């Protein structure tokens, strides 16, 4: 049933190893050979951006980075990183403008919006990774499903990355009906519609079809809360139903509940097995998908590597220590987002500490990094983000 | 009993908290008719000042140490507070902010008209403080008392119980036993909504300290007609005239302001503006300043930022470093990571992640107002240095831009009695200005002390009457003449 798509890489010669790495369809394959391939692919992509992007060239030169110093995966961790926030305030591309297929913005938790350019390859190769993870999890289905999409209802000109992803995620089972939690008001705005959502859930229950709930956990939580308050729960959905959270709590961090409690809540009120409730992590600035295993752990797929870095020194930390989350991936050709320091703090755990059997490490997000609030009486950056003149 | 809750000047236990809060409305109704006696505040304050200075209230030191201060810092905190308790300080503050030391007496505003005005308390003033500075709660409460209000403190547990201990020590010094009616202090978690709503429901005014989010939430919980006195977060910076860019003495002082207390005060500079529009001049100045900062930083023992604060510093430093590749910024870091300079060729004011992190930016005088406009209502102190012939134009531009306080480099943490705070006098904000116009009745009086039925205070009652002879024979007190 799964026909892996063939995606054309911009330059088969310069990016041979990148192509080869992205052609691995088992998301969690991890061998000495894949390590070697990953390293070679990174060398290709570094050269790709170095020779096509003046900013990136200066960045590497300023840091006296020498591509010939890369002899192992470990060496890659000395590649200069770009903080994800950099892409929120700068636009830089390594491809001609006419090759830009899509420009995505991040959903703007803190008022700033990222702008990232994707050429056909970067977009399609990223999406194929999601396909591979779905296939790995056996989530492709011919049975139609009803969808609750916890994201913005698509309207003309919507460029938010998460909205885009959520829409994409409705393709893995034929859609009988899609209900968006953030509905278009018809005037370029969106409004959260909890009443509509409760109605939709009750209607979907009667359909007896599996449902798929996709997107921001916050609004799903509010809908279930409403369902309980209105005494319309518990509902009982098909056991093949699937919940995939992505995109975080957005502006509702103060009401956030622990992930496991949310899964419990979904299970109790919608009758969906906890094993079929998963969280995902991703960012416009680093579009490799991280999707929880059935033990609810975010494993690193074959197409990227990740290390946690000390918040004081940026040095690589050992397993089980909290620090900045950083990623390396060779696949993005449009923007030099190949070694990215994220705005999140996380802890990396060794593969063997998860019972799912995957042989790659996994991480836990523990919160935003560097949004310190109200410590001093001086106004903080997070208070001023919207007013900054940048 | 854990000393957390002070009810009408007396300790109450956690177990009695709810019961006492429910009795509060009736008590307040009665106590609102009690006139605040400024002299009893003066006496209690003097008494406590003496005790603190002679080290007789060790539990205050102890609770500050529990809060996380070193012995030296605790002494410094108590110094700041005892300076405020000094009677001359209090009197000057009254005179500067409310016009006299008897501000509640109705007085003619002019002898040509029959109009009388005075200051009166708001009534019940609730103080909600953040957990970032142990001096804020005691001083805000003192200001509330000076304005004659019944004061209720909602302390943050992060401050330990220092404010409560201080207030208890103060009312205990009051021999008239009237001050206690004006003092309540509680440590109630924000989660106890019901208890908090009891506090809120009585407030005629709320002194709200903290960041925008906390002030927003206070506003939404406050009674709709209560006056909210916002003491929000502020941003400060230094401005150096081009003529002073090589003034080593001043540069050292600016460096001192950056290093001392790790820029934790709202008056600490977060950006150093230099009067220029030349990129090269800016960079060479920054390099020069780095040498001075290295030297000064070594002299002051650093505090280590916590994980979140360190993450913020590293994030900004990383972005500035990346910006070098686009020639838009430059990072100059100390070898030991004890300070960092963020040179930015864009002039807009941005908050620093603190801990000896300073933006250095170019800003010609004629661009000051325009550049600072986005942060206009957040601006507080500009530490300024320039020649006298440049002073008028620069200070004018800074004030036009929204700055409320201009101080010398090296003295941004100083203040003086009666100095306006964030552009206002606190005592006025904690008071009502009242007027009386009854021309038919008030024809023959100049102010309402003439109508006072108050008995003469004890300390004056027993004082012998000064005869003309006594007066002429008095020695001339230079201090007295000076203070006049």
Structure commentary:
- The complex is a heterodimer of chains A (390) and B (484).
- Chain A has 390 residues and is an alpha/beta fold.
- Chain A contains eleven helices and 15 strands.
- A seven-stranded mixed β-sheet of chain A has the order 6-5-4-7-8-9-10, sandwiched between helices.
- In chain A, strand 5 and strand 6 form a beta hairpin.
- In chain A, helix 1 crosses helix 2 and helix 9 packs across helix 10.
- The radius of gyration of chain A is 21 Å and the shape is globular.
- Chain B is α/β, with parallel strands linked by helices and 484 residues long.
- Chain B contains 19 helices and 17 strands.
- In chain B, the strands form four sheets. Chain B has a seven-stranded mixed β-sheet with strand order 12-13-14-11-10-15-16, sandwiched between helices.
- In chain B, helix 9 links the parallel strand 8 and strand 9.
- In chain B, helix 10 packs across helix 11.
- Chain B is globular.
- In chain B, 41% of the residues are buried.
- At the A-B interface, helix 3, strand 1, strand 14 and helix 11 of A face helix 9 and helix 12 of B.
Largest sheet of chain A: 7 strands, mixed
Which geometry of chain B do the CA atoms define?
globular
Strand order of the largest sheet of chain B: 12-13-14-11-10-15-16
- If strands are numbered along the chain, what order do they take across the biggest sheet of chain A? 6-5-4-7-8-9-10
Kindly report the oligomeric state of this protein: heterodimer
What portion of the residues of chain A fall into strands of 2 or more residues?
Answer: 15-25%
Structure characteristics:
heterodimer, A: 390 residues, alpha/beta, seven-stranded mixed β-sheet, 11 helices, B: 484 residues, Aldehyde Dehydrogenase, Chain A, domain 2, globular
